[in-house]
Amino acid sequence: MRPVLRTSAALGIAVLAIATLAVIPNAASSSDVVLERGSCNISGKETDLGASYVTSVKARNTSCGKALKLVKAYHGCRKDNGGANGHCDKVDGYKCDEKRESAPAQYYAKAKCEKGGKKVIQTYQQNT
Hints:
It is built from 2 helices and 8 strands. By secondary structure, the chain is of the alpha+beta class. The protein folds into 2 domains: 1-28; 31-127, no CATH class. Strands 2-3-8-7-6-5 form a 6-stranded antiparallel β-sheet, with helices on one face. The protein has a two-stranded antiparallel sheet with strand order 1-4. The N and C termini lie far apart (73 Å).
């Protein structure tokens, strides 16, 4: 009976390991994984990416780590070109555009930056 017990335990561990690995690519939290298309986990980083508050980052054909670096560079460029209300058309070789909706003391924006088949889309709030 011992060989069967060892085989069952080994099989159980293997199934658990495979199930765990199957979940990791969908999490999009690893900064090195190149996403065909997906959302990046910015939990805890919303106020550290250059705008008052970044609400979402999506990446296509690039990693979340590179997408977050681009978001930070985008906001640096935007602030270098007019402060809180500044614009940035190009950063790190990416062509960028954005659409804004204004409120009395802030605005909400969706910015898209593209280079080749790579795309980074972010939404953010900026206090003015």
